[in-house]
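stage 2 :: seqdesign
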């Protein structure tokens, strides 16, 4: 699959099309950003938070050494990995790859002259 060619002007004129993971949390401050995590409702959100807490406890105590009877510790780890996956800004990574390749190409052209 061939990637779309992006010019530097596209990036400068429309950065909101490329940097989509982080969003300003406030119009008055530009040093705080928010991210979006999609959930199916409050119950799903609470389960995600509980899974993060349980995964942290399992990591600290060890699955075998936990005083609590945890029936499915893999569930918590799976949920933690799912949340981590949601936080990876793949689109921004693609953009950075394209910009880096453009930089290398321009550098090679400049060095060969």
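stage 2 :: out
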């Amino acid at each position: 699959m061939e990637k779309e060619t992006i010019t530097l002007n596209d990036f400068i004129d429309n950065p909101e099309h490329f940097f989509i993971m982080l969003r300003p949390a406030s119009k008055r401050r530009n040093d705080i950003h928010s991210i979006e995590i999609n959930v199916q409702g409050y119950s799903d959100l609470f389960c995600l938070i509980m899974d993060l807490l349980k995964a942290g406890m399992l990591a600290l105590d060890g699955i075998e050494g936990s005083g609590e009877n945890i029936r499915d510790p893999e569930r918590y780890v799976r949920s933690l990995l799912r949340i981590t996956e949601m936080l990876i800004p793949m689109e921004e990574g693609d953009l950075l790859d394209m910009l880096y390749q453009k930089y290398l190409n321009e550098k090679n052209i400049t060095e060969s002259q």
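stage 3 :: structure notes
- The longest helix spans residues 90-112.
- The two ends are 32 Å apart (CA to CA).
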